[in-house]
Amino acid sequence: MTMERNVTQIALFTALIAALGLIPQLTLAFGVPITAQSLGVMLCGTVLGARRGALAVLLFVGLVAIGLPLLSGGRGGLGQFVVPTSGFLIGFPVAAFVTGYAMERLGKFAVVWAAGIAAILGGVVVLYVFGIAGLAIALDRPVGQAALLVTAFIPGDIIKAVLAALITAALYRARPNSVPSRR
Amino acid sequence: MANPVKLLALDAVGLRIDGRDILRGISFATDARRIAVLGRNGSGKTTLARVIAGLQTPSEGAVQVAGVDVTRDRRGALGAVGILFQNPDHQIIFPTVGEELAFGLKQMGLSKRAVVERVSETLSRFGKAAWHDAAIHQLSQGQRQLVCLMAILAMAPEVIILDEPFAGLDIPTAMHLTRVLDSTDAALVHITHDPRTVLDYDHALWIEGGAIEVQGPAAQVGKTFEDAMRQLGARDDLTDLAG
Amino acid sequence: MISLTSPVKTRAHGWSAGGKLAALCLASVVLFAAPYLWFQVIAALSVLILYALPGGIFLRYGLRRIWPLWPFVVLVLIWHVATGVTEAGVVIALRMLSAVALANLVTMTTKLDAMMAVVHRLLGPFSRFGLNIRAIELAAAMVIRFTPILSQKGAALALAWRARSRRRASWRVIVPFMVLALDDADHVAEALRARGGFELDKDL
Q1: Whole-structure pTM over 0.90, yes or no?
Q2: From the list C99, C138, C174, which residue is nearest A167 (CB)?
Q3: Is C2 an 8 Å CB contact of chain B?
Q4: pLDDT digit string (tens) for B157-167?
Q5: Domain of residue A16, CATH code
Q6: CA–CA min distance A50, chain C (Å)
Q7: Which residues fall within 8 angstroms of residue A159, CB to CB, at 6 or more apart?
Q8: ipTM here
Q9: Which residues constitute the domain of residue A161?
């Protein structure tokens, strides 16, 4: 894998996270609309693996910081790092890294299972640890109460983890050579 | 000269990927300024273009463009050969026209001042000085193709490879780009499936199954190629699966 | 791509980006260190005045950007009033609003390339530890270039889906979308190599 290919894959996946945030109408089977941005974060991990996946998401977060409106709804800028939900944004790169790391470690499982477990570990568990910690700090409340605030969103994110697993598996079937986390 | 350096010299070039021969025994040496590479979809002509541009290392044989071993000497290759891809969106890396043109020049090791001068000089040569800060995504497909071409011409390579650059462009845009290309000093290697666009070229290669089927004067090779294609076209041609 | 820089030119547009960022850091630290109601009220009013100085359009735009915080403000107030610590609740809500508004203010008055220049300076020392800053800058440029392309392609895929389906495009459309992104990455990597790529970095 050349350096050029590494860099372009990272950049294209960063753009992919942004583009997923721009598509608002992703309707799930039950008619629940979701923003696909955290799905993008999970896919960076399951497809690119720990290192490149985390770098792609880190680049995304960095570009948001310097003022690009890449977050869903056209949000961006430094203010996003001090809002009460900023824990999620700050946790994005770690979530991608853990997802990718788990994906690489689960090499003997079928892709769909490995990706599903990895996405739930990184994209849900780790991401919510960061998100809840951020809320608890910003609102000056105990962690338990902050966690209550976001429980309503957890089922949606578990669905996204399942989608990330199905998408990664479908991608692996279509292009086995295009899933660097499996090589 | 005892050992004249040909503009383009390929010696027994072969390429094998995953056990399949993509290119076989391609040899030619020419000083022609206008070279056409004809072939059908999947004949290997695009791969040949990438080999000549030094982007794909052949499994065997040697490639020299203007005396430069383009696969090994990448720095030398920048001044020897440029390649215009079919889809400008696969080529343009930067969000604005000025940055895109500056990139290749910086890569060649030019000083900051020289880069700025070369960029504005290139833009004004095409009457597009106003494009410097224009956002790429607001340009039309033809305009973006012109940006790609200007980015290559700014680097002034000896040879420019064109990989079906007019596919998908309307006739006036294609004619405009053709005029631009005709006016350059660089030699052209034009990869195409349409022999009519290269009738006035000097030399032509017909690639079939990864090897040279015929080579010679463009008018003659183009005619042979077109006749063969028409014969094939009269039959059901979508039956065979590749591979 | 549109950035979040305000089209209304303010005097702060001309100030050095590094200075504004340093001031923002300092102001945020002070905001979070001061638990006094009077202090937070004065701070919030000062921020409001800063927003009002460039005129009505700028003020409205700025307020609209912190509007999404209202659920949190309501939540904090209800919570703290219910637990009998109203003053602490007001302090937290004001602090949140001031901090976000100040950060937004820096983003609104600083152009993207000025921010990039600061990032470049900040990353500079790390190049000694093998950080390839040029690769980062190149990648950033590519993101700005390819985000609109990818969203256009995504929209085109969704259309192609709808043309042959009674239902709206589902998540399945993301698979070809990613294939496109990976293919584009390969093509662009090649275009990068065609113009020297990163191999030349070694002897530069």
Answers
A1: no
A2: C174
A3: no
A4: 999 999 888 87
A5: 1.10.1760.20
A6: 17
A7: A28, A32, A34
A8: 0.87
A9: 3-182
